[in-house]
Amino acid sequence: MAYSDSEETTMHLDLYWIPLGAGARTVRFSGRTFELLSAIAQRRPRCDLYHSALIASDGATLTTIEMAPVPDEHGRTQRGVVAEGCVGLRPLGALRTFRYEVRRWPHGLIPDLPYAVGSPVRIANDTASVRHVLDVLASVPTPVWGRDELDAGEMWNSNSVISWTLARAGIDTSVLRSPDGGRAPGWDAGLAVAARLP
């Protein structure tokens, strides 16, 4: 997705809520199945699921921040990858199909951004907040995706990475909520892990 010149020259940090699996049938189906089973187990209505991402502007460059699958071995040179982790089970991480990457990608793309709901959510307009977010991302934990290795109370995923990063950067996350009728699994796990650090 292209961004306007005015967006690039304005200092800001924006949060996007993207429907899980937008543009990817398999992910959408598995997400809906997971949510159906979760809703039954927790005896609550089924919700729409969301994947979160950030776009930061330092006044000159737009940088996309998100967790995504690893498409090839050139992430650190081509997509601004700062960390990688395993998906499902740690031994499977030897295979690229079962790894995820955390991107801090200058001029990067988020393919599903056009599907975002109730977005962007402007989080900050100041230099310190933007730089803090960009700086702390490199130290994000990388436990196995889809599991609760850190005893945070729920699985670790893309939402965990975003909420952890915001919390560690000193952003007030108490006012951030997924769109009405939806939820962002893993969001609270990121906050819980971030709160353990001084």
What does this structure look like?
The protein is an alpha+beta fold. The protein has one domain (5-195). It is built from 6 helices and 7 strands; from the N terminus they run αβαββαβββααβα. α5 packs parallel to α6 (187-195). The longest helix is centred in the first third of the chain and has 18 residues, at 25-42. The protein is globular. The N and C termini lie far apart (37 Å). The model has no long low-confidence stretch (mean pLDDT 88).
Gist?
The chain is α+β, with helices and mostly antiparallel strands and 198 residues long. The chain contains six helices and seven strands; from the N terminus they run αβαββαβββααβα. Helix 5 (158-168) runs parallel beside helix 6 (187-195).
Number of strands: 7
What structural class do helix, strand and pairing data support? alpha+beta
Rg calc: 16 Å
Mean pLDDT: 88
Tell me the distance between the termini.
Answer: 37 Å
The share of residues in helices is: 25-40%
Low-confidence stretches: none
Order of helices and strands: HEHEEHEEEHHEH
Overall structural domain count = 1
Proportion in β-strands: 15-25%
Specify the biggest β-sheet: 7 strands, mixed
The number of distinct helices, counting runs of at least 4 residues, comes to 6
* Bulk shape: globular
Topology:
Layout: H1 5-8, E1 12-19, H2 25-42, E2 48-57, E3 62-69, H3 75-78, E4 81-86, E5 99-106, E6 121-124, H4 127-136, H5 158-168, E7 182-183, H6 187-195
Parallel strand pairs: 2-7
Antiparallel strand pairs: 1-2, 1-6, 2-3, 3-5, 4-5
